[in-house]
Design the sequence.
């Protein structure tokens, strides 16, 4: 079965039309760290030359060796070919390859499968695979003319989604042809000098291949979203920036994000369909703007996207992984058996009905050649849950995922699978093998809701359901609960833990697969929390009514908030600790004397007031927050707090949310004191103390007995504004409630979001202490 393709593009300010940007100087995105081949483009971009030829065609204005370095993507929607010379990525290599960039073509490369990633494999193969050419051939052969869809996207360096650090989908088209890479003409002497073929050399398997595959698409079937028109509109009417937000297509879903990480990657039909529906939704949003930005009705774009959706639905099997499910139990290749079974299925005789007959010993005549295999299959381990196992065949899953669901998720997924396949989204946790990066094909990933939707609720315009097995509707409580969970988890990343039920329903109705379709969401039933919804929701969600409104929390986040509130309240209500503070007046005097010499116009009064408040409270209170703008002295004073606590021989833990932050505070402690204390990341600290399970087992964490907790005398957390609720919950749950606990929180720039509004930190408040 053919695959589809994601291809990264460097940002271009005139729709990749085979011409120089309209403003090469202004396009800094193409040379950004998160562009395409950004190092090469930044090094080789000749801005002055491009500025002089802005808006001109590449064809006829550049010799092959002087073509702008963004030629990999500049002709994606250009109608004129031009010659180019590929240069090798290694500095000092003079060899080139002459090539032609065809109309409507891009160059790309599957970097993930080209490098050796794991240390174990590097020790054997060096940096490159000995079978790289075969890997590339296999990759190219996944894509078929007239069948495979190419999705063009920009990495974070673009003017639309840069602040969000998300991939931006630009458009799509149907593949026309590919051109395999050629070889650079290295001599044997050059290769020998590099270390090719030499044991122990990282270059032992160096390939002379030019890492550039040309893909050409069918422009008459393409859709390119009109971002540039919207950018121009927002520049003219800044107050209408929401229009651009309405139409942008970013990649949010975990299983989709990983399909955009390595410049070029193959994707299955289900991911392809969901991306097409996301583009379709964008087209409808553009239409809702009533030609205020785009002055035509997008009828052609809608027609094209609908044709692509129809094409993929019609070639996607209703049971794409039946052979993999059968293989799990029979331990042999089952493609022929699966194809034979699928060949006799129809709307009034679906997979479940077929296997109900087989379970009774009534094997269909068309399957008699496979009687032995079917008899082996009907062993007790398959027969007792065969309806649940067969439902797995509706979804595009890997062998690894199917094996893990059947072996390790019996209670959480398999037992409820027959009636609720959305349990896969709610409970499946990917666990790829250690060498996953070295395996060319996808092994494991999250199972997102769209993947279950595609299997359970096919588009009725193009596919007729087998309703006995595809037995869930768009408004099923099971599906709606999963959508609520997905939405609420997306809010958690921004520091929110709940939302109004009306807002959640509005979000559900915007879901790409059902947006502007005949799908019916039971809005009144959900708002009224009728029993079928309430009973199912309450298993995973906390529902809180306030007057006429209902607010929905993820149950685990609601519990986490209560636990954190409980701990903070305990710390705030404690009596003050005995004064074991340092001699701060003397320390402040010495600091003032030193700073007066080094800083012209030093604000002595403010400095003294801030430090006095800090040292009068930091050692006596059980909870303390320190805030301030960059350069206000937070880290310096924190180092001296740490120095004093160390002198008292009290236990001390110093944590930070990221490795970079941990290294920075460790370095500052060494620079500002005589101590050599190493801060730890929160993740490492949790793992080193045996609480790795807490990331998944919220219930066990919430009920952790005191004897399993650790006593911490002093806890300092740097960069606290970056801590998510889950990590803070784990920390607060594992800390013993002993009166000896004395956390300090050193917050940089802004504080935990529930507090930051109280402090209103700004550039006029250099340092603020809050006991």
Sequence:
């Amino acid at each position: 079965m053919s695959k589809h393709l994601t291809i990264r593009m460097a940002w271009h300010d005139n729709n990749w039309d085979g011409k120089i940007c309209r403003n090469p100087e202004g396009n800094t995105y193409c040379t950004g760290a998160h562009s395409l081949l950004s190092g090469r483009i930044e090094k080789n971009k000749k801005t002055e030359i491009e500025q002089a030829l802005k808006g001109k065609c590449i064809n006829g204005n550049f010799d092959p060796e002087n073509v702008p370095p963004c030629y990999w993507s500049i002709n994606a929607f250009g109608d004129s070919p031009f010659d180019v010379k590929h240069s090798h990525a290694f500095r000092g290599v003079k060899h080139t390859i002459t090539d032609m960039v065809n109309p409507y073509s891009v160059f790309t490369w599957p970097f993930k499968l080209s490098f050796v990633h794991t240390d174990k494999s590097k020790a054997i193969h060096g940096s490159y695979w000995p079978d790289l050419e075969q890997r590339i051939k296999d990759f190219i052969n996944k894509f078929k003319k007239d069948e495979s869809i190419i999705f063009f996207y920009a990495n974070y360096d673009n003017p639309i989604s840069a602040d969000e650090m998300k991939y931006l989908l630009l458009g799509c088209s149907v593949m026309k042809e590919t051109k395999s890479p050629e070889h650079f003409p290295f001599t044997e002497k050059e290769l020998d000098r590099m270390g090719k073929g030499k044991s122990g050399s990282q270059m032992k398997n160096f390939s002379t291949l030019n890492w550039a595959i040309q893909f050409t698409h069918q422009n008459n079937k393409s859709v390119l979203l009109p971002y540039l028109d919207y950018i121009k509109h927002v520049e003219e009417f800044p107050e209408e920036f929401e229009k651009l937000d309405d139409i942008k297509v970013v990649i949010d879903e975990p299983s989709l994000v990983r399909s955009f990480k390595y410049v070029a990657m193959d994707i299955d039909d289900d991911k392809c369909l969901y991306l097409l529906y996301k583009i379709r939704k964008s087209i409808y949003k553009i239409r809702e703007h009533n030609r205020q930005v785009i002055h035509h009705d997008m009828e052609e774009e809608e027609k094209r996207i609908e044709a692509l959706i129809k094409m993929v639905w019609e070639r996607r099997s209703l049971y794409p992984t039946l052979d993999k499910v059968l293989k799990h139990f029979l331990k042999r290749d089952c493609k022929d058996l699966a194809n034979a079974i699928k060949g006799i299925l129809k709307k009034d005789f679906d997979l479940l009905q077929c296997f109900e007959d087989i379970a009774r010993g009534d094997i269909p005549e068309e399957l008699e050649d496979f009687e032995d295999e079917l008899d082996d299959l009907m062993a007790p381990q398959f027969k007792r849950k065969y309806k649940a196992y067969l439902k797995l065949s509706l979804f595009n899953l890997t062998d690894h995922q199917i094996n893990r669901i059947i072996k390790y998720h019996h209670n959480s997924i398999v037992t409820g699978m027959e009636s609720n396949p959305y349990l896969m989204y709610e409970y499946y946790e990917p666990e790829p093998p250690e060498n996953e990066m070295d395996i060319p094909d996808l092994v494991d990933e999250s199972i997102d809701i769209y993947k279950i939707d595609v299997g359970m609720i096919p588009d009725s315009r193009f596919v007729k359901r087998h309703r006995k097995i595809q037995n869930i509707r768009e408004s099923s409580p099971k599906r709606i609960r999963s959508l609520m969970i997905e939405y609420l988890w997306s809010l958690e990343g921004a520091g929110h833990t709940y939302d109004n039920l009306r807002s959640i329903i509005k979000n559900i109705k915007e879901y790409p697969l059902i947006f502007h379709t005949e799908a019916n969401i039971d809005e009144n039933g959900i708002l009224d929390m009728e029993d079928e919804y309430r009973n199912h929701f309450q298993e995973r969600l906390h529902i809180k009514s306030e007057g006429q409104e209902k607010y929905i929390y993820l149950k685990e986040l609601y519990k986490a908030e209560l636990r954190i509130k409980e701990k903070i309240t305990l710390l705030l209500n404690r009596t003050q600790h005995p004064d074991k503070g340092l001699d701060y007046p003397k320390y402040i005097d010495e600091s003032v004397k030193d700073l007066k010499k080094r800083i012209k116009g030093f604000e002595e009064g403010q400095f003294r007031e801030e430090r006095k408040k800090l040292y009068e409270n930091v050692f006596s209170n059980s909870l303390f927050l320190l805030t301030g703008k960059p350069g206000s002295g937070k880290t310096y004073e924190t180092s001296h707090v740490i120095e004093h606590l160390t002198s008292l021989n009290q236990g001390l833990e110093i944590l930070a949310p990221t490795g970079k932050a941990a290294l920075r505070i460790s370095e500052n402690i060494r620079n500002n004191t005589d101590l050599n204390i190493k801060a730890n990341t929160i993740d490492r600290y949790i793992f080193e103390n045996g609480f790795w399970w807490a990331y998944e087992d919220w219930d066990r964490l919430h009920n952790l007995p005191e004897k399993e907790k650790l006593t911490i005398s002093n806890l300092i957390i740097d960069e606290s504004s970056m801590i998510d609720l889950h990590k803070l919950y784990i920390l607060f749950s594992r800390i013993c409630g002993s009166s000896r606990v004395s956390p300090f929180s050193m917050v940089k720039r802004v504080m935990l979001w529930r507090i930051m509004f109280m402090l209103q930190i700004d550039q006029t408040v250099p340092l603020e202490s809050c006991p």
